[in-house]
Amino acid sequence: MTDTPGTDSPVITIKKYANRRLYNTATSSYVTLEHLAQMVKEGVDFVVLDAKTNEDLTRQVLTQIIIEEEAKGENLLPINFLRQMIGFYGHGMQGLVPRYLDLSMESFSRNQQQIRSYMEETFTGLFPFGDKISEMGKRNMAMFEDAMKMFSPFPGAPRGAGAEQPAAEGESAEIRDLKAKLDTLQSQLDQLLRAKK
Question: I want to staple 61 with a disulfide (CB 3.0 to 4.6 A). Which of 10, 48, 123, 139 is the partner?
Answer without folding.
Answer: 48
